[in-house]
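Could someone model copper (II) ion with this protein?
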Amino acid sequence: MSGGSGEFMNRWMVSIAIGIGFLLFANLDFSRAADQAAPQTKVPKKEGATHSVGMKNWIFSPKELTIHVGDRVVFRNDDDSNHTVQFEDSALNSSGIIKIGKEFSVTFDKPGVYPYHCKPHHDYNMTGTITVLVK
Ligand SMILES: [Cu+2]
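Reply:
Sure, complex below.
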């Protein structure tokens, strides 16, 4: 074996090593770029908003509320008498009696107009409407 042939082998090995190193580096760099791009391309799972409707002086407040699909409405009894939230649409869960200081919440999964009333105070026009828009 001459020294020249050994030197040739060494050079060959070095260039292979550089080539592999470059490929690894390029690959790493590529995956890093993909990671950085990920948050922009992913659609974050957005939770619905929470809205509140108060009950005071036998009035729902706000009486009319517009929300979006996936939002939640918390009905809160701030009055000195018991109330209920009775939806005209039987597909929705209505409350039982909501005692003084208690809450009742509903999450709206479908768009639509949902009128409701307080069962014991319907004759006193204790009514409201939740309008649910598509997101
Ligand atoms: Cu009532």
